[in-house]
UniProtKB/TrEMBL annotation:
Catalytic activity as recorded in UniProt: pyruvate + ATP + H2O = phosphoenolpyruvate + AMP + phosphate + 2 H(+)
UniProt keyword terms in alphabetical order: ATP-binding, Kinase, Magnesium, Metal-binding, Nucleotide-binding, Transferase
Similarity section: Belongs to the PEP-utilizing enzyme family.
Record gene name: ppsA
Protein's UniProt name: Phosphoenolpyruvate synthase
Biological function: Catalyzes the phosphorylation of pyruvate to phosphoenolpyruvate.
Domain (PEP-utilising enzyme C-terminal) ranges: 487-794
Entry-linked InterPro entries: ATP_grasp_subdomain_1, PEP-util_enz_mobile_dom, PEP_synth, PEP_util_AS, PEP_util_C, PEP_util_CS, Phosphohistidine_dom_sf, PPDK_AMP/ATP-bd
Pathway annotation from the record: Carbohydrate biosynthesis; gluconeogenesis
Stretches assigned to the PEP-utilising enzyme mobile domain: 394-464
Ranges for domain Pyruvate phosphate dikinase AMP/ATP-binding: 29-359
Enzyme Commission (EC) number: 2.7.9.2
Species: Silvimonas amylolytica
Entry cofactors: Mg(2+)
Length: 805
């Protein structure tokens, strides 16, 4: 850690109140992790441009002197002695009594005077936030996120005194008492510091949380930013589904546009100042205007500025960080409000074993939301409406609620999974679910309406960013993959990765890059609209236009939505595997598949055999589709030339003739994707017998081949790969005729000194085919991620160590 004690600072001794600017990280025992961190950033990072609002902190000594009043400490110790924190009702009773005692106990006069003096230094009756900072919190191996209270928009000395009292009392919230017991912290050794910080007017702007690491996979080359309108408590509490952004660190550091993926959140409500505050209600929650919901709450430039702050903070502290931020709606500036160590993914012990969960069967999806963790859980639905019903949750139940408040931590650990209507991936409930190792699907919107009490369901968070609640108890498996001393492979092994949402997970497997990234997955999952319909917007018929408008919310135009979403998908893959090669195959939808997209039927021809119809290169160069293909080119050029992710290479599918090859290469060049410029390689998918027969002549136009074994087998043997029936049994990539085609293609590339790999299904299904390809001197074999380790070890002559449980 780079933050070292500065002993030249004015001595604080046993002071009861200290200005943030006088604090450093080594003073955690005096003012808690949160306040010590604020002081560290104010004094050490301001010169690097990180803005942190000023303020002051009461000390642990002040807290202990307060507890010495009227025998308060003794009463608290007696109440906690022998308490069973797993007895929810007993815990609630004892916690409530202790909090009432604390609020009723007066402050010492000396402490009140010091608070008054420091408040006066902030300005004339300024508005502040009063936050908690426990002396054991925010340690690298424990997260106390959200356990104590925060009070916003507090103005006036008397109101500040009351808020500090409430903060002290919150050290004995039910969740905090339970957490300390389970983490082994002695109640008597934990003290509380209250931080009084000048308010950022994010009630008129935006706020959120960011991590300098991906919270789900531990991938450390991105900053994950969440944002919503108003005060950040709605994001922290999980009351809203926020906007989400991933920023690639190396791209940001290179000074290029670095947002590789973003997701528009619902942002249904926001918290703002209550100008007519009564009975301590200094903030209120209001609905967000529908037009604002359909827009991102922060600009791309602001997201990148925040990510830049995250990099500075991470570098200073020397570890992944969890950071709260706010944008002041008055001055328009971004501020860092808190920073604490990330305590889940960064603390997982290094191991030679990779544990993954996989669904073995699927059923009807009842509801879906944002996936927390990468596990799977199954059990009976238990719908909990409020804290009074918590004790109904039995071990192995699926806890379902509107939003899972951190107060519920004592029973959350009983659940096999958690499902909520509201919340984002950085809310307190999500943080606790990760720490407990429980899969959670948050922000479903309708979980408490769709799911029924007692129903048996399976909750899967192992399929990317989206988490799914399936009907019934389904089969799934836990897969332990040994990575210990991986032997040298005789061939470069790459991966076929279709879903960008899984890229941060898959890139942690041993690999040489991505041999096949299918654009169809990005278009189908992330866009879902036919490109012709987007080009025709806004002149679509009303019903279709309304559906398209829902999809394109947050983007400048319908066409920009298409281009930017393709770019996001490609950039996510490129960032995950950077600087290793990522070969992106441009779209290879068939006409019936394009027809399944929104608006598709009116633009696609009816073909008796779409497999052999209007697809691949012939579609790109046809006047009816050329404008759609040019959008794909724009997206790819943005990723390579604007973002600088030049590890992206292009693959052209289903090139039937030499004339098609020539025209496609010309069309790419016309759209700024010329072979050789900025290191661009263009690969042809070798999947038609004509490609192998005329391999040398096709190589005049391309930088190499990537063999598609599925179509090559189909067209060599004359078997429709989509058909079933008796003839399907003869479909085998190991057939001698198919092997002859593959051998011709490999030899031609070798003779020309050009790239040759295979990305078809064959080697994933048939290890003996993979071995034969090695003997043919193929350069790379691209496999499905779940077969990489097994095939790697087999080719290296070692037995597999994959085990399921």
């Amino acid at each position: 850690m780079n933050a070292t004690p500065n002993h030249d600072v004015t001595a604080t001794g046993n002071a009861q109140v200290i200005d943030f600017a006088q604090l450093r990280m080594h003073q955690v025992e005096q003012v808690g992790g949160k306040n010590a961190s604020l002081g560290e950033m104010i004094s050490q990072l301001a010169e690097k441009g990180v803005r942190v609002p000023g303020g002051f902190a009461t000390t642990a000594d002040a807290y202990r002197q307060f507890l010495a009043h009227e025998g308060l400490a003794g009463r608290i110790d007696a109440a906690l002695d022998g308490l069973d924190v797993d007895n929810v009702k007993a815990l609630a009773t004892v916690g409530k009594q202790i909090r009432e005692w604390i609020v009723a106990t007066p402050f010492p006069k000396a402490l009140e005077d010091e608070i008054a003096a420091h408040y006066a230094k902030l300005g004339n009756n300024v508005t502040v936030a009063v936050r908690s900072s426990a002396t054991a919190e925010d340690l690298p191996d424990a997260s106390f996120a959200g356990q104590q209270e925060t009070f916003l928009n507090i103005q006036g000395f008397e109101h500040i005194l009351h808020a500090i009292k409430e903060v002290f009392a919150s050290l004995y919230n039910d969740r905090a008492i339970s957490y300390r017991v389970h983490k082994g912290f002695d109640h008597k050794l934990v003290a509380l510091s209250a931080g009084v910080q000048r308010m950022v007017r994010s009630d008129k702007g935006a706020a959120g949380v960011m991590f300098s690491i991906d919270t789900e996979t531990g991938f450390d080359q991105v900053v994950f930013v969440t944002a919503s309108y108003g005060l950040g408590e709605t994001v922290v509490q999980g009351a809203v589904n926020p906007d989400e952004f991933y920023v690639h660190k190396p791209t940001l550091q290179a000074g290029r546009p670095a947002i590789v993926r973003k997701h528009l959140g619902g942002k249904a409500i926001k918290m703002e100042f209550n100008t007519e505050a009564v009975a301590g209600k200094s903030v209120r929650t209001v609905d967000v205007d529908p037009a604002e919901r359909r827009a991102f709450s922060v600009t791309d430039a602001e997201v990148e500025e925040l990510a830049h702050y995250a990099l500075i903070i991470e570098q200073h502290y020397g570890r992944p960080m969890d950071i709260e931020w706010g944008r002041d709606g008055v001055d328009g500036k971004l501020y860092i409000l808190q920073a604490r160590p990330e305590t889940v993914k960064s603390q997982e012990q290094a191991t030679d074993k990779l544990t993954k969960f996989r669904m073995q069967e699927r059923s009807n999806v009842l509801t879906e939301g944002r996936a927390i963790g990468q596990k799977i859980g199954a059990g009976k639905v238990r719908i909990v409406r409020d804290v009074t019903e918590m004790d109904r949750v039995q071990p192995g139940d699926i806890l379902v609620s509107d939003m899972t408040d951190p107060d519920w931590e004592p029973v959350m650990k009983r659940a096999a999974a958690i499902v909520t209507n509201r919340g984002g991936r950085t809310c307190h409930a999500a943080i606790i679910a990760r720490e407990l190792g429980i899969p959670a699907v948050v922000g479903c919107g309708d979980a408490t309406q769709i799911l029924r009490e007692g129903d048996e369901v399976t909750v899967s968070c192992a399929e990317g960013d989206s988490g799914f609640v399936y009907q019934g108890l389904l089969k799934f498996e836990r897969v332990d993959v040994s990575l210990a001393q991986m032997p040298k492979s005789p061939v470069k092994l790459m991966m076929n990765v279709g879903n960008p949402e899984l890229a941060f997970e898959f890139c942690q497997l041993p690999n040489e890059g991505v041999g096949l990234a299918r654009l169809e997955f990005i278009i189908n999952r992330m866009i879902g609209v036919h490109p012709k319909a987007l080009l025709a917007y806004p002149n679509l018929e009303p019903g279709l236009k309304a559906q398209v408008e829902d999809r394109i919310a947050g983007y400048r135009s319908a066409v920009d939505f298409y281009v930017d979403k393709i770019a996001e998908g490609i950039a996510t893959l490129a960032a995950a595997f950077w600087p290793r090669k990522v070969i992106v195959r441009l779209s290879d939808f068939k006409s019936n598949e394009y027809a399944n997209l929104l608006g598709g039927p009116q633009y696609e021809p009816h073909e008796e055999n779409p497999m052999l119809g209007f697809r691949g290169a012939s579609r790109y160069i046809d006047p009816s589709f050329r404008d759609c293909f040019e959008l794909e080119c724009r997206a790819t050029k943005k990723v390579r030339d604007v973002m600088g992710l030049t590890n992206v290479e292009l693959m052209i599918p289903f090139v039937r003739t030499l004339a098609e090859a020539e025209k496609v290469i010309e069309l790419l060049a016309e759209n700024g994707l010329k072979r050789g410029e900025n290191g661009l390689r263009v690969i042809m998918m070798c999947e038609i017998p004509s490609n192998a027969v005329l391999a040398d002549r096709f190589l005049d136009y391309f930088d190499g081949f990537s063999i598609g074994s599925n179509d090559m087998t189909q067209l060599t043997l004359g078997i429709d790969r989509d058909s079933g029936g008796p003839v399907s049994a003869s479909f085998d990539e190991r057939n001698e005729a198919v092997k002859a085609m593959l051998s011709m293609a490999i030899k031609a590339c070798r003779a020309r000194g050009k790239y040759v790999g295979i990305c078809g299904q064959g080697p994933s299904d048939h290890p003996d085919l993979a071995q034969w390809l090695v003997e043919q001197e193929i350069e790379t074999i691209s496999l499905n991620p779940d077969t990489v380790i097994e095939t790697w070890l087999l080719l290296a002559g070692e037995s597999t160590t994959i085990k399921s449980s």
